[in-house]
Design brief:
Blueprint lengths: L8 E2 L1 E3 L5 E3 L13 E4 L5 E6 L3 H7 L1 H6 L2 E5 L4 H11 L5 E5 L8 H16 L20 H10 L1 E4 L5 H11 L28 E7 L2 H15 L1 E4 L5 E12 L17 H7 L3 H11 L12 H6 L12 H12 L7 E3 L3 H4 L8 E9 L2 E8 L2 E2 L4 H19 L2 E15 L3 H13 L9 H4 L5 E7 L2 E7 L5 E7 L2 H11 L5 H19 L13
Parallel strand pairs: 1-4, 5-6, 5-7, 7-8, 9-11, 14-16, 15-16
Antiparallel strand pairs: 2-3, 4-6, 10-11, 11-16, 12-13, 13-14, 17-18, 18-19
Helix pairs in contact: 7-14, 9-13, 16-17
Amino acid sequence: MESSDNFLRPYKTKNKRNNYFPMTQTTQLYQPEKYKVYLGKGQSIGFCTVWNEPESVFNKSKIIRDNSVMLGTLYSRQGVSIILRNLALNPKIRTVYLWGNGTLSNSKFGIAGRSTLTNLWQKGLSDDGTIDGTQFKIEKEIDAKTVKKIINNVKLADVSDKSIEDVEKLLISSGEKAGPYMKPVEFPETEREQIDIFPSEEIGWLMRGKTITEAWLKLVERIMRYGTVKGTQYGYQQRELVGATWVSSEPDPENPDFSLAGNWPHSLKELAGATPESIKEYFNIFLSATMPTGVSYTYGNRLMAYPNKNGEKPIDQIEEILKKNLIDSPDSRRAVATTMHPSTDKDSKEPPCITQIQAIQSRGRLHFLVTARSHDIFKSAIPNAFGLRTLQKKVARELGFELGELQITSQSAHIYEQDWDQALKLSRCFFWERKPELIFDPNKHADPRGNMIITVKSKEINVEFQSPSGASLMTLQGESAKELSAQIAHLELLSLFSHIMDVAMELQKAETAMKNKLPYNQDRPLVF
């Protein structure tokens, strides 16, 4: 599902001229154009769902509308800072009901935000902004003394174990606590480091990795270096690459390779979903045919219980389309499943982000080609990829194919502004400040398109292009490094930048050796 981290987005209505404006009444909101809040008629109660869609709760429950000041939702730890900002602006709120009742609310993803908030109330806040009992820090602009005052005066009631009917009874019987406990406090805006955007071709990107994490890290770095800064429908900013394709060959998604994430802080692993527990839980929930309560869709439900016409039995697209077509013909190009349901999604504010999966067989290997219309790369992409890879392995095994590649094309590959700091740190750590490996490792650095064997014969440089197995594919001749480099570039024979740079240097060495009548041996220094 799309994880926009829209913790609090403004509930809006129309005036007579059909212009939208927030229903602020006397309530102050933190960046209401960005963070979604539904305003009620209450005086001292705040209501916060966990992953459950707040609009549905707000529209269905008149009691919640009449008894709460505002209603929002909490998707991740970052939402804690937004909740604190709104509470500081509204000291009339004396009780916050936290309701995480549902499958997703009690998944690892839902629990992460909820436990962070409850830890803040139960264990307190250190002077440096770290919530005790966690490694999570609130935004540095939020004053710790004010937060402690909020904790001491606002009751946090976790009612996640109760039904919505029982919660309504609590709201009716809780009564109103009159009067604010302090003057409204507006914290300074978070200042984010400015990052230069490098010029680029803007549309159409390709990243490869032996593991999902490796391909993901490359994608994060490209977004932070080349991503266009633009707005979103939620109000806040994003950095976006258009048409980003990332390919991985994770060998065993049921035992994920997180070696590259070994030194990450635990909070970062949890945020990105880079833990075995997160991956397993994601697959069991999001890729299950059963629809959890409180959400409009899951990928598993759309793939394996797709709505049928006239109320007929839902379609299991994995069995009836992907597998059936490949059983009928291993060369089929019709094994395509979709998650979009136009009659349902045309008016939806949260249509499926992953829209299509195609299974295609080549050389006895089953590849998955996945399209995502919108992809929150920092918080959703890793669990998405491992869930798809696990499904791919299951289908390949049942059809008797070897496991092929997973290709995900993220048409809008974006990172939201709340995650830029973390993404920037990763980009610096893994790419910008890390020295490249200078020793050739065939398992990491071999070009899948082949190798160049360079020799010097009299007044001519010869380049034999060989397949990875050593078979001769093509021979090029030229009198200069520039001429041969132009031929190789024109034919686009090589795929890796490192290989291209190495061949260019070797061609210049070969030309120098030829002109100076020196012996030339590829990958060896010239001896003058």
